[in-house]
Write a structure and sequence with these properties.
The complex is a heterotetramer of chains A (about 800), B (about 210), C (about 200) and D (about 300). By secondary structure, chain A is α/β, with parallel strands linked by helices. In chain A, helix 3 packs antiparallel against helix 6, helix 3 packs across helix 7 and helix 3 packs parallel to helix 9. Chain C has about 200 residues and is of the alpha+beta class. Chain C has 2 domains: about 100 residues, N-terminal domain of TfIIb; about 80 residues, no CATH class. Chain C has a 4-stranded antiparallel sheet with strand order 1-2-3-4, with no helix packed on it. Chain C has a two-stranded antiparallel ribbon with strand order 5-6. The longest helix of chain C has 19 residues. In chain C, about 55% of the residues are buried. Chain D folds into 2 domains: about 240 residues, Alpha-Beta Plaits; about 45 residues, no CATH class. Chain D has 9 helices and 11 strands. The chains are: A alpha/beta (about 800), B mainly alpha (about 210), C alpha+beta (about 200), D alpha+beta (about 300). The interface between A and C is large, with 170 and 123 residues. Strand 12 of chain A pairs parallel with strand 9 of chain C.
Chain lengths: ~800, ~210, ~200, ~300
């Protein structure tokens, strides 16, 4: 979230699209109801299904799964065509005026530089600004140049007329225009719109571009950095934010640093492309500090073994050739290229697409370790559960070790919520039986492996034996001590750069801010963005002062928000270039002559005066936000509508390039995609309010509230297929088939797509063959093994299926 | 010394057992039913071991009554058909009540009052049984709608009161008309009693071998 | 942090704070209990502040635990979980998952002991922690020593281990996450993922 | 002690009216306000209710709707009822939390024959006291909202208690506390009515011209009230009664029938007594015996 849960109460308009906040995040959705009840806000819900969020919406629009970019590009076209953009904001705070290289073009569904053979934009050189002699970006403040970003954008979205939007998305034109008008009403500084999305946007081959589209709309409207504005990702797991920050991700290191690639043979290779010099005069370009963050992290990881001489133990880090993300891992397992696997609280058999492929992969492993508080399908993938998991245990040679982990109530520590607020939780009781905390388990494994390597040697033992684990009790470290390790220390006295005789921070002290991090080995810090969470003043994540002096829902002394306890990102943009709030109604930060004043920590130099013309988007080299993404996205600097891999129609915009041209399809999966002649129905998967992923199917009362798998089918389709409510139906895709009970509903409304009726079915993801709910074949049996081109998030939200009436599963009675 | 007639057999042992089962269950039903009918009488549940047991036992006793009464009904219904003399008897009911029985027609085994008791209880017990089933939630809660149950409750209560009133008449008559009770205890009545109250029947009985 | 039991009456509605509901106030529980038909069942419970384990709203929860019986060494047990009314995001509210989260802690499907499934068998067998941990360390070392890639085809030092993967949890604490990162990355595993993408 | 937290009795089933508590301020009535227009049907209230009351509701099956459990049960004091309401091009998903309404004039209490099995506190809460319940199911017949359920295991009636145990110590009912969107409010009835007014104003401004408060006068008002977008048609919401009142049959049954019946029985008894005293027993005379003997002789001869 760029803003926070509480901040939603400040909004005037909520757009829930690509998510279902009421259902997946009811307590966060509270702030939508607050905005509605106390701020007169309106709620728009755009979703293939009339969801529980839609139940309390002012306006609902149906949409075909996987067509959000078409809808959002249509909104951009509407805003640009009708002059409904926040012109001053757009000019000052985005790259709208910047000139793009002449060679940039978009034709027949492809941007410049596409390599057909490699299925990739190998040459992205034209996706770049024009630079002057000083290396600064050229701009046209009059917005007349046809190559300026705003004009290129206008041309790009021109094709997304309301008629075209209706043709692609199935959203009735009148409803679409009504929504455009409502969105346009927030293009003044007086009113803001907030966008709430989740997996409904990310789980597509165009996932990242879905979100970019919304970010662009919010920039055009001037809603970024504003109270009640922003683009707000509603994250899933309780600490998925923290774990993402901590980079349990194949190509990252903590704090949004990146692992080196094998093209970066030396440390110098690695850092030279990450010095991020400003591209406009006087800009902050905060990533210039990259090296400080990286070196401090290496000191936390490897301690004294990381020295200037060995390039801060650069070679201790693995270098990647390709991304070893979830989909790649599953593909490798299925190809027999993996021997061992750990599943720590992640039920991969349910969570990755194409369950049959995952199961085949698990069966090819030599060993698997499952660390979990609960029984999972993954741990028991080898167990025969009749029709629900028809396997022969004798044929599966995988050795499986299950380690019992304790749960949240049985351990203490911090977690980071979707608003980026780090909060401490305290232990209530001991875990059951012999369960141990994840910290204890990780410590035990590390220390045993370390001892083996120390004693017997082996392949490159250095990083293992040198990993810092000097906690007071290494077998079971105190969480507070580990949080301090993440926060970072001054390893030596840190001199004041302005006065070498002055010491800013004495050796051994906790760092109060990442501003003190150094690239000379004088500081440690596992993750720079969390620095400040544990200072000499104490553990900030334990703070429980709920006061909110401004009434804007900032709660500055509750926990600690990264970075630097900032609650709304880009908040400098809430004031105009002169430092005055865009409107008194939306006052958040203002320049008081000496400094930036307000209830939040400025996302900006706190004493940098407005006349310095420093842009509010300080992480970017330009200081402005990017309507044009430069080379940052693999599938183009502007979003473009591509059909899901299971394409229901040929792309109406460019039938020759129907699906995303840079999508990664593994050789083994070439035949894994369905076509509408065999699978004429569009399916989407989703979550229910009553369940959380694959956990709560183990919880009695949640099973009471939703006991059994079903498939939501619109009345038109049900009638055509002779399916009545409660009938058993078989849902099949190119990847496999499952059985589910029919839930015939008016909430999936018939739509027309490119001149043909489009039926949609919805499948909840929660049910499996382990748990106290009724057994079911996992829904991911049906989903395609392909991911977003940017983030490799699987395309769970749009795929093709067929449904037909069938008999109940053998071991399940037809009715109660 | 007056000459006394031999006692006349009025009820077989089986009939008497049948009657007394019916009588006892009816009394128990009345007590338990009234206990649940009016809060003043809730204390009667103590006789049955408390409210829960009262609630549980009442319908089962009802089943006993229904079966038992069916026995009585089959035994006696042919004797309870209405006759012309019953109409005459009814017209002289005032005299009957005033113990002035001169000039009444000779009667068979039952007089009109007894017949009315018989048919009244037959109808009411049938209604009580049916409405009781509707109210017997332990087994039949889902068989009927709440509105049907409400109607059944009213019918059950009304019929029960009717049955209790008839029962009072029945019992009082047995107390009032001396010599009656022994028909149900010893199974026989005196000849005089038979002569006085059911002369036609007496004539038939005397004529038997 | 266990704090003493405290009674509150925050309906938690920001808009309703000024109404008399907020003034319901505290009450002498003893008196109330004497009068009440139903005893308030958290009277002797210990309250611990925690966060709901499920989604990233991270609602504050109050975990009520109590020792069974009066024995001093009886193991405390969680008896109830409710929203933390002081928490600025959830204000004491919980969704159906959070409200029922006691059932997660007490689920019959909680793992209690290390278990081992030998290849080709159809059951898990209970093993000791020492057996399990040693076995895992041994399996890791065998595979790593055999398949570790120190240099790629171009001779660049890459120091990676690709034949073992690690799916990390996304409901771990940050501290557990950092230890996981340290443990996994130090081995050279590149295939390290969590729930963020899926 | 706050007056809201009073558990003084106003009424007790099958019992005379208790006297007003001496020396105490008049009770303030509480109410739960369910704002249907804010309800997202997430069932947090159901979960919180199951948890707080430690109910053991068995796991069922899906019936192809979101209604689970499909009905109230002895172990589910509240359920969400989902209605798909299509009108013209528009569609609404009406979601109503069903459960005890805590009527000011409770039909269950009126019907209950067991003294003290159902009580009404002065704050308006209608509560079932299991110890006194005999499981007769009369409350089911008395209730105009079809709420109480009889347990098959212990044959006692169960329904929402409005968390009287929480209210008495100053806490909101579990459902109200949990409700993520504050579609469930709890407070004094006066405050809840006033708050409903504001909500109705907001709904009218959003085009729901018939928005209104459901506090049906037929049962004397309720201590659980609804804000409805279509207050002109409560029955749209999964059959919420348009004009609930205690069934006239129950009125007859639990009203005049009781005194009339007892009077009739008493009258019959008294009549018999008077008759016996004034008219005396009907005895067989010696003459009758002689006649009988004569006849016997004649026949026997």
């Amino acid at each position: 979230m760029t803003n926070s849960w509480n901040d939603i109460k400040n909004t005037d308009l909520v757009l829930i699209m690509g998510g279902n906040a009421a259902e997946a995040h009811p307590c966060g959705f509270k702030w939508v109801t607050e905005a509605k009840a106390n701020n007169g806000a309106k709620l728009i819900v755009v979703d293939p299904r009339f969801t529980r969020s839609a139940a309390v919406a002012d306006v609902y629009a149906p949409i075909r799964p996987g067509t959000d970019i078409a809808f959002l590009s249509g909104v951009m076209r509407y805003l640009l065509a009708n002059g409904k953009i926040h012109r001053e904001y757009v000019k000052a705070y985005t790259n709208a005026t910047y000139l793009v290289k002449e060679g940039f073009k978009f034709e027949d569904g492809l941007f410049a530089g596409y390599d057909e053979a490699k299925k990739s934009y190998v040459d992205r050189s034209s996706w770049e600004y024009q630079f002057d002699e000083q290396g600064m970006v050229k701009a046209d403040d009059t917005l007349q140049d046809r190559n300026c970003v705003l004009n290129l954008l206008k041309v790009h979205v021109e094709r997304y007329t309301p008629e075209m939007v209706e043709r692609i998305t199935g959203t009735p034109k009148a409803r679409f225009l009504q929504i455009c008008e409502m969105i346009a009403s927030t293009s003044t500084g007086e009113r803001t719109m907030t966008s709430m999305y989740a997996l409904g946007w990310t789980q597509h081959t165009t996932g990242a571009q879905n979100i970019r589209s919304m970010a662009m709309i919010q920039l055009l409207l001037g809603n970024m950095g504003m109270p009640g504005g922003g683009v707000n990702a509603l994250r899933g797991h309780s600490n998925v934010q923290g774990i993402t920050d901590l980079a349990l991700l194949s190509t990252s290191t903590p704090g949004y640093l990146v692992l080196p690639t094998e093209k970066e043979a030396t440390y110098e290779d690695y850092v030279k492309s990450r010095r991020f010099k400003p591209l406009r005069p006087g800009q902050t370009s905060f990533w210039q500090n990259y090296e400080k963050f990286f070196v401090s992290q290496q000191k936390s990881l490897f301690g004294k073994a990381a020295t200037k001489e060995n390039d801060w133990a650069y070679d201790y880090l693995p270098k990647f050739d390709v991304s070893y993300d979830v989909l790649k891992m599953v593909d490798m397992m299925a190809a027999g290229q993996m021997n061992g696997l750990f599943c720590q609280g992640l039920n991969i058999l349910m969570a990755a697409p194409s369950k049959n492929k995952v199961a085949a992969g698990l069966a090819k492993l030599k060993w698997m370790v499952v660390i979990d508080p609960l029984q999972t399908e993954t741990a028991r993938f080898w167990e025969n559960h009749g029709e629900f998991n028809p396997v022969d245990p004798k044929a599966i040679q995988t050795e499986v070790i299950q380690l019992p982990a304790s749960a949240y109530a049985e351990e203490e520590g911090s977690a980071t919520n979707s608003s980026r607020v780090i909060m401490w939780h305290w232990k209530a009781v001991e875990g059951p039986g012999e369960s141990k905390s994840d910290m204890e388990i990780m410590s035990a494994l590390h220390l045993r492996l370390k001892a083996l390597y120390a004693k017997n040697g082996g392949a490159f033992p250095d990083p293992i034996v040198n990993t810092m684990w000097d906690y007071k009790s290494p077998e079971n470290p105190d969480p507070a001590e580990v949080l301090k390790d993440i926060n970072g220390y001054a390893l030596e006295d840190i001199p004041d750069p302005a006065d070498p005789n002055k010491v800013l921070l004495a050796a051994g002290k906790l760092l109060p801010s990442f501003a003190l991090m150094r690239d000379d080995g004088k500081t440690s810090g596992g993750m720079w963005i969390y620095t400040g969470v544990y200072t000499e003043a104490g553990n900030m994540s334990m703070r429980r002062d709920a006061s909110d002096p401004t009434g804007l829902g900032i709660h500055p002394n509750w926990g600690f928000a990264w970075p630097a306890n900032r609650r709304v990102l880009y908040n400098r943009a809430s004031a105009d270039p002169d430092g005055k709030p865009w409107s008194q109604r939306k006052k958040y930060l203002e320049w008081n002559g000496q400094r930036w004043a307000g209830g939040d920590v400025p996302d900006y130099g706190p004493t940098v005066a407005p006349d310095k013309n420093v842009g509010p988007f300080i992480m970017n080299q330009e200081g402005t936000a990017r309507l044009f993404a430069r080379g940052g996205m693999p599938d183009g600097p502007f979003p473009e509508h591509y059909e899901p891999m299971d394409a229901f129609v040929a792309n109406p915009l460019h039938p020759k390039v129907t699906t995303n041209p840079v999508v990664r399809v593994f050789a083994a999966d070439a035949k894994s995609f369905g076509t509408p002649d065999k699978f004429p129905i569009v399916a989407t998967s989703y979550r229910l309010a009553e369940h959380f992923h694959y956990w709560t199917k183990n919880v009695h009362n949640n099973a009471v509230l939703q006991p059994e798998m079903f498939v939501e089918i619109g009345e038109r389709l049900a009638k055509a297929k002779g399916i009545a409510n409660g009938d058993w139906v078989e849902v099949s895709s190119q990847r496999g088939s499952i059985k589910a009970k029919a839930a015939v509903t008016k909430r999936i409304r018939p739509i027309m797509v490119d001149g043909k009726p489009c039926d949609i079915v919805g499948l909840p993801i929660h049910f499996g063959f382990v748990g106290v709910t009724r057994k079911s074949q996992p829904v991911n049996t049906l989903t395609p093994p392909v991911g977003d081109v940017s983030a490799q998030t699987p395309e769970f939200k749009a795929f093709l299926v067929d449904v037909k009436k069938t008999t109940p599963p053998a071991s399940q009675p037809a009715t109660a | 010394m007056t000459v006394e007639a031999k006692p006349v057999s009025r009820y077989t042992t089986a009939a008497r057992i049948n009657h007394w089962i019916t009588a006892i269950s009816l009394i128990l039903l009345a007590l338990s039913g009234l206990a649940l009918f009016h809060p003043w009488l809730f204390g009667l549940t103590a006789l049955f071991g408390g409210g829960q047991l009262t609630r549980m036992l009442h319908p089962w006793i009802g089943v006993v009554l229904a079966v038992s009464f069916l026995g009585l009904f089959l035994r006696f219904f042919t004797l309870n058909f209405w006759k012309r003399e019953d109409t005459v008897w009814m017209k002289n009911l005032g005299s009957v009540i005033n113990n002035k029985e001169e000039g009444l027609p000779e009667l068979g085994k039952y007089n009109a009052g007894q017949k009315l008791v018989f048919w009244g209880q037959s109808i009411l017990i049938l209604l009580l049984f049916c409405s009781g089933l509707v109210l017997w939630d332990t087994y039949f809660a889902d068989a009927t709608s709440v509105d049907q149950k409400r109607l059944a409750a009213v019918v059950h209560a009304l019929c029960a009161i009717g049955a209790i009133l008839i029962w009072i008449v029945h019992v009082y008559a047995a107390i009032w008309v001396k010599g009656t009770l022994r028909a149900m205890t010893r199974g026989s009545v005196t000849g005089g009693w038979a002569w006085k109250h059911h002369r036609k029947w007496f004539r038939q009985e005397v004529g038997k071998p | 942090m266990a704090v003493t039991r405290r009674q509150f009456m925050k309906v938690s509605a920001a808009g309703l704070a000024a109404s008399s509901v907020g003034a319901l106030g505290f009450v002498d529980a003893g008196e109330a209990l004497a009068a009440g038909a139903r005893p308030y069942r958290l009277e002797k419970a210990t309250e611990t502040r925690n966060a709901c384990p499920y989604c990233a709203v991270a609602c504050g929860v109050l975990i009520y635990s109590t020792a069974d019986g009066t024995s001093k060494d009886a193991k405390p047990k969680v008896v109830h979980i409710e929203g933390d009314p002081d928490h600025p995001v959830n204000r004491g509210t919980l969704c159906p998952r959070g409200a029922a989260s006691l059932g997660y802690l007490h689920s019959a499907n909680r793992l209690q002991y290390p278990m081992h499934r030998k290849p080709g068998t159809d059951k898990f067998e209970r093993v000791s922690w020492d057996f399990a941990l040693d076995r895992i360390a041994q399996l890791m070392k065998e595979d790593r020593d055999k398949n570790f890639i120190a240099k790629n085809r171009d001779g660049v030092t890459v120091n990676r281990w690709l034949s073992t993967g690690f799916f990390g949890g996304s409901s771990l604490s940050n501290e557990a996450g950092w230890l996981t990162y340290k443990f996994v990355r130090s081995t050279g595993i590149l295939a390290l993922e969590d729930q963020a993408r899926i | 002690m706050s007056v809201l937290q009073s558990l003084d009795l106003r009424r007790r089933s099958a019992s005379p009216e208790p006297p007003p508590p001496a020396g105490k301020a008049p009770a303030v009535e509480v109410a739960k306000l369910i704002d249907v227009s804010k309800c997202i049907g997430c069932k947090a209230c159901q979960a919180a209710c199951l948890e707080w009351n430690q109910l053991d509701q068995p796991i069922g099956y899906t019936d192809g709707t979101y209604n689970n459990p499909t009905d109230l049960t002895p172990a589910s004091f509240t359920v969400m009822r989902f209605t798909e309401y299509e009108h013209g091009d528009d569609f609404e998903w009406l979601i109503r939390k069903d459960g005890c309404m805590h009527c000011a004039d409770p039909g269950c209490l009126k019907a209950c024959p067991a003294p003290g099995a159902i009580v009404q506190y002065t704050n308006g809460i209608v509560d079932f006291v299991s110890d006194n319940c005999i499981g007769c199911g009369y409350c089911v017949k008395g209730c105009p909202f079809n709420i109480p359920r009889i347990s098959k295991t212990d044959s006692k009636a169960y329904k929402c208690t409005l968390c009287s145990d929480r209210v008495v110590v100053g806490q909101a009912p579990a459902c109200a506390k949990a409700c993520p969107t504050q579609a469930i409010y709890f407070g004094t009835k006066a405050d809840m009515t006033a708050h409903a007014g504001k909500r109705i104003e907001d709904l009218k401004s959003r085009g729901f011209q018939n928005a209104g408060l459901y506090d049906p006068p037929g049962v004397g008002g309720t201590h659980v009230m609804y804000v409805l977008h279509h207050a002109d048609r409560p029955s749209l919401y999964a059959g919420l009664p348009d004009n609930p009142r205690i069934s006239p049959l129950v009125g007859v049954w639990k009203g005049m029938l009781k005194p009339i019946s007892l009077a009739a029985i008493a009258f019959a008894g008294v009549f018999g007594l008077v008759h016996y005293v004034t008219r005396g027993p009907n005895r067989v005379t010696e003459h009758d015996e002689e006649e009988a003997a004569a006849l016997e002789k004649q026949k026997g001869a």
